[in-house]
Amino acid sequence: MEIHALRAQGWTISAIARHVGADRKTVRGYLSGARTPGVRARTGPDVFRPFAEYCRIRLADDPHLWAVTLYEEVVGLGYPGGYSTFTRSVRERGLRPHCEPCAAARGRDHAVIEHPAGEETQWDWVELPDPPPGWGVGAHAHLLVGALSHSGRWRGVLADAEDLPHLVEAIDAVARRLGGLTRRWRFDRMATVCSPVSGRMTAQFAGVAKYYQVGVDMCPPRHGNRKGVVEKANHAAAQRWWRTLPDTAGVGEAQAALDRRAAALDDRRRVRDGQRLTVGELADAEGLRPVPALPYPAQLEVVRVVSAQALVAFRGNQYSVGPGMSGQRVTVGHRLGADTITITTGRGAVIAEHRRAPDGAGTTVRAQQHVVALETAVLQAFSDARSCKHKTRRPPSPAAVAEAARLAGLSETGPAARVVIDMAGYAAVADRLARRSTAAADDGDNEQGMA
């Protein structure tokens, strides 16, 4: 704009170039329209041009073909460029056709959904990759996030799995952290809540919704933006808490750090009806209903391995079983809201029942009968005999010598004993060969003399 304005005032191209600090060819190109501001001219040949038609045909045949797969194909055809240059060329030319089902919420206007105070809580599981090695949960940790749609306050709880009992336990814990219950809950089509195909709520979860007196709404399939509040909370949990979590953190420490991070984000500013408020102030004014005193009584079960000390680990504590089960897999069962746990074998036999200690307390709970039985088993297996001396000289005993003689006698009468080697026969053969050689030499000398 400045170049065109100065040219309209009668400035020369050289004066404009000196004034704006550009080359005269650049100024001349802008004035003539040969160059467009913000668009860099290509400095080399377009190596993608010969392959553009092939890519257009392949993407027309298969709009969902991965770019890396197509890149491998064109490299095999002689494409010399890199992958990033290839994908940029595909995007600039618009070679990939638009797929409406896959881009249902992309590139179109979005409606603003009103969320009245106290109306809706949005829920979602987040699978967090690469958990600390000491957690022993596999390749992913499971985090349930709940967010209030009106205010944006969110909380999360780590869980051992994503089955229905763990979901119910996590929902109850998150609801207490949020400060109460809304009138409705919104989920995506997770199998523990509804049928992924029809979207109808399962009978098991219907009992949960009835217990907490909430209505349940399901998102349409492949419309994650319908629960955008919890999706943004997922991003905050992953980027502002999980990414910086140290490897040495335990599950309890990680949960405490998550609670602190979520509470700190309640200070975010919001503007409602012309007033500047924080997320925490909006959430406190939502008028949430109180959570029942006890969670829904779902039966939670996890599989554990008995240690060498006849102990089973569960939620940061150790619980005893009888002796003789070291290394075996058992099932720890706990009904939500109860203060006891049961330990059963793989066939369902109950082998122990304990009062549950607070999670993460590091307590060892031992039943008296288990202590007595374990001590008895250890003492019975204990021996006070003096240990053996491994450097003592102990030659073969008479029995071993007799057995060795018997084996030697068998070898003397075996097939090897019948093999006889007579060296006299070899000497006779050697003598005959020597006489023949001497006779042949004398005959040769006589023939030379006659000649």
Query: Which secondary-structure class do the elements indicate?
Result: alpha+beta
Radius of gyration: 43 Å
Spatial ordering of strands, largest sheet: 3-2-1-4-5
Strand content: 15-25%
CATH architecture classification name of the largest domain: 2-Layer Sandwich
What shape does the CA trace take?
A: flat
Percent helix range: 25-40%
The named CATH superfamily of the largest domain: Ribonuclease H-like superfamily/Ribonuclease H
Instruction: Tell me the span between the first and last alpha carbons.
Output: 126 Å
Number of strands: 14
CATH class of the largest domain: Alpha Beta
Number of helices, counting only DSSP H or I runs of 4 residues or more: 14
* Secondary-structure element string: HHHHHHEEEHEHEHHEEHEEEEEEEHHH
The low-pLDDT segments are none
Question: Please, what is the average pLDDT?
Answer: 85
CATH fold topology of the largest domain:
Nucleotidyltransferase, domain 5
What does the oligomeric state look like here? single chain
- How many discrete domains? 3
Protein name: Integrase catalytic domain-containing protein
Pfam families: Mu-transpos_C_2
InterPro entries: Integrase_cat-core, IstA-like_C
